[in-house]
Amino acid sequence: MLKTRTVHISALASFCLLLSAQSVASAIEREPGDQSLEPALEGQSGEEIPGGLSEVEYYNLPVEKQVELKVQNEMTLNGGSGVGTIPSENIAFSNAITEFSDSIYSLGNAYPDVYSAFEVDSKLESISISVASKSSVERRDEFIQQVERVLASYPYPVTFPEIDFTDREVQSVADELSNDLETWQPRLGGGSYSINPSVKTGTVTVLTDGNADSEWEKFEINGIVVNVERSEEPIALPQTRLADVSPFYAGIRLNNSNNQGVCTSGFAWRKWSDNKVYGSTADHCYRDSGTSSFYNNGNHVGSRYLPASSADVMLLLPSAGRTFTGRTYVGVNSANASYPVKSASTRPVGAVIALHASFGTPFVTTVAAINKSIVLQTATGSYTIYGISWTWSNAQTSYCQGGDSGGPWVTDNGQGQAAAHGQHFGGIKWGSQQGANPNIYYCSYVDVNRISGATQSTLVTN
């Protein structure tokens, strides 16, 4: 059984993120006529700019100064409810995580039989590094000693809880059942089936409309229990992010007319001016490739509409009879798991967050910095993007990849529902500018509140 609640910070698929989205009301779907959740617009940001500064002046400040001004101004991310204020004392903790994260990753790669998960608590400023109980005591002791050496100069408490299984093990079983249909479909009754891995229980549940033999009603693969349940209703063939149909979800692969992968779809947005729902993706997908009409598995998804360069976003106008909805795919490309999008919020420094896009492997990390800006050079010219958040995931280790642009950054509220936080911008090596570690490619995203203000629209929830 699971002995501790953990969040995995690794390049692993994660259907069920064991974390709770911090509740900050922001650009969520509102009832007609309800203005209470609309972000206050200041320029194109969708946020009040504290300190009497212009947007450019404010976003060119070091992040520590930005946070200080926000706290002094008693500004909250949802326009003054008192929820979601970013504490400046967490900056040192976040910087420390950024400094030692690569070393922890390296040790995890050196001890793959021991290292299981990494969790940080920005409120308590504590660190938890889970280890596999099945590993040898000697190897666990070696790993723990190495980690303690890395963290010796930091004042933060660290614990090493033991867990009996990891999401890597559970997900690998789900992937085998999903990918090897030739082997598993006959064993599971010859019909269609859906696969539901659970990191919380360390099991995989298969729902099938076939008649599985009794020996395959419950079995194990590499120690992970697979439970097979019979569905009295036919199971529709699963949609995936590579083969979606209308209404389209966030996180699907967007191809050009030659079926070449270009980018990933973002969340659905409802325009304030016409109350219509549009899809979205990163605007640099057009500026880099010239692609303005996007497809998925041969189906037309949408065309570029009302781009907002300051947030690197373009809305997607759907074809007649097609639409977008407030759901997002989670997990690997071959899986069909999706979550309804129930809320939206800005993640503060140190908070956990996950990227589920269509090219790189889904992964979980933490926020390294917020409210950054960059002048982006593209084939169609240069423009400044604001409201960028860095995460401390190194793009050189394939966490985020080309083609993930526009994809959803989310958390799970613990009930199989997603909270939307941003849309993927890219893996950027910032050098030494804006306080960056010059050796890290930060996987970065544009905040949902920035996108909401720039597009004059509200996130569609389900």
Number of strands: 25
Oligomeric description of these chains: single chain
**If you compute it from the alpha carbons, what radius of gyration comes out, rounded to the nearest whole angstrom?**
22 Å
Distance N to C terminus: 33 Å
Point out poorly predicted stretches: 1-48, 70-89
The structural class is alpha+beta
- Average pLDDT number: 74
Number of helices: 8
Helix content: 10-25%
Strand fraction equals 25-35%
Characterize the largest beta sheet: strand count, sense, and whether it forms a barrel: 6 strands, antiparallel, barrel
Placed side by side, the strands forming the largest sheet appear as: 19-20-21-24-23-22
Shape: flat
Q: What would you note in describing this structure?
A:
The protein has 462 residues and is of the alpha+beta class. The chain has a domain of 61 residues. The chain contains 8 helices and 25 strands. The strands form 5 sheets. It has a 6-stranded antiparallel β-barrel with strand order 19-20-21-24-23-22. It starts with 54 loop residues before the first helix and ends with a strand.
Task: Describe the SSE topology.
Layout: H1 55-59, H2 63-72, H3 90-110, E1 115-121, E2 126-132, H4 137-150, E3 158-159, E4 162-163, H5 167-179, H6 181-187, E5 193-198, E6 203-208, E7 218-221, E8 224-230, E9 248-250, E10 253-255, E11 261-264, E12 269-271, E13 277-282, H7 284-289, E14 293-296, E15 299-308, E16 313-317, E17 324-329, E18 338-344, E19 352-355, E20 363-378, E21 381-394, E22 408-412, E23 418-429, E24 441-447, H8 448-455, E25 457-459
Parallel strand pairs: 2-3, 2-4, 6-8, 9-17, 18-23
Antiparallel strand pairs: 1-2, 5-6, 7-8, 10-11, 12-13, 12-25, 13-16, 14-15, 15-16, 17-18, 19-20, 19-22, 20-21, 21-24, 22-23, 23-24
